[in-house]
Every structure is written in structure tokens, then in C-alpha cells.
Design a protein that fits this description.
- The protein is built from ten helices and two strands.
- The chain is mainly alpha-helical.
- The chain has one domain (about 5-185).
- The protein has a two-stranded antiparallel sheet.
- The protein is globular.
């Protein structure tokens, strides 16, 4: 029996997210040969494929997991130094654009005031603050360089994507902090 996205329960999503997080944790403990079995990019893309789930709690749980895995990808990419492989740079740029899509989903659910408590319960606020800290405060230039693309010997900056990520991250926090209950916790 094939389960379609609309047939998936929140409990199934939480089980899936937990399993993906376990695989992501195991990834760093594996040998290089074994790491291909637990590819972080594949886990990230799998989460992205599920993001059009309409149920807010599930969508936000998936988003938090996707952000967490992308942060691991970023750590892996930056720990080995500058990217010299054009294909690897393009892969990172493509994944980064998917991260922007994830934060857009979070923003969409942040517009509904009844979802405010879910932002705290699912860890969305912490994830968004981490995105802002890692990509804008600590590593802005690095991310800008990683997302550049060379076409016909011309470098094309993906600065707009980086700014979109900032706008949607801050916008999501702004929407949630309109509720005075959450404002002190975020600030």
C-alpha cells in the first residue's frame, strides 16, 4: 500500500524525523566508505520532498529536521576548507536554495497565530536563530562564496538567495513574536 502525503499522520512524521536524525548522527561516526550509505544530502532532499504536508505541526517538525541536517552539510563542506570542485560548489548552491524553500514553509506557517505555540514546541525558534547566527553573523562571506556560480567564465553571485533566507528567517521570528507570550523567549 502506498501512503500519499495526505495519508501520513503526525506520529508517522515524528517517527520519520527521528529516524532521519539517527541516520544523520550515525553519518559522522561512519567510515568514508560507509558514509555514502547515509548521505546527508539524500536525507535533506528526502525531507524537502515531504514539505508540502499541510498539517502545521508536521511541516514544522520536518522543517526543523531539514535545517538541522543542512547545518551538518554546511559543517562538512566548510571543515575541509575552500571548495575547489565546481560540481561540489553547484551542489551546495542547489541545496542552499532548498534551505530557502524550507524557511519559506516556516514563514507560511508563522502567518497563522494559532501556530505560534508550535514554533516553540517543535524547536523552530531555536532553529531560525541558529540559521541567522551561522549564516549571517558567523559565516556570511563563506556562504556567499559557496553559493556563487560560474557561467561562461563569469561569476554569478547568489546574494539574493542569501538575503531571502535572512528575510524569511527574521520574518518568521517577527510573526511569532507578535504574540507577547513568545517575545521575551526569543529576545
Amino acid at each position: 500500500m502506498i501512503l500519499y502525503k495526505k495519508d501520513v499522520t503526525h506520529a508517522q512524521i515524528i517517527t520519520l524525523v527521528s529516524s532521519i536524525q539517527i541516520l544523520a548522527n550515525q553519518h559522522s561516526n561512519q567510515t568514508i566508505l560507509s558514509q555514502s550509505k547515509y548521505c546527508l544530502e539524500t536525507l535533506f532532499k528526502g525531507l524537502i520532498a515531504l514539505l508540502d504536508i499541510k498539517e502545521p505541526r508536521s511541516a514544522l517538525a520536518l522543517s526543523v529536521s531539514a535545517i538541522s541536517i543542512f547545518l551538518r552539510i554546511f559543517d562538512k563542506v566548510t571543515e575541509k576548507g575552500p571548495i575547489v570542485d565546481k560540481a561540489e560548489s553547484q551542489t551546495f548552491g542547489g541545496l542552499f536554495s532548498r534551505l530557502v524553500d524550507v524557511v519559506k514553509v516556516v514563514f507560511k506557517h508563522g502567518k497563522e497565530i494559532e501556530n505560534d505555540s508550535l514554533f516553540e514546541e517543535e524547536g523552530v525558534i531555536k532553529s531560525l536563530v541558529t540559521v541567522i547566527k551561522v549564516f549571517f553573523i558567523q559565516n556570511f562571506e563563506t556562504v556567499l562564496n559557496l553559493t556563487k556560480e560560474v557561467v561562461n567564465n563569469k561569476t554569478i553571485s547568489k546574494e539574493d538567495q542569501l538575503l531571502d533566507l535572512m528575510i524569511y528567517s527574521i520574518g518568521s521570528l517577527k510573526l511569532v513574536t507578535q504574540d507577547s507570550i513568545h517575545k521575551p523567549k526569543v529576545l
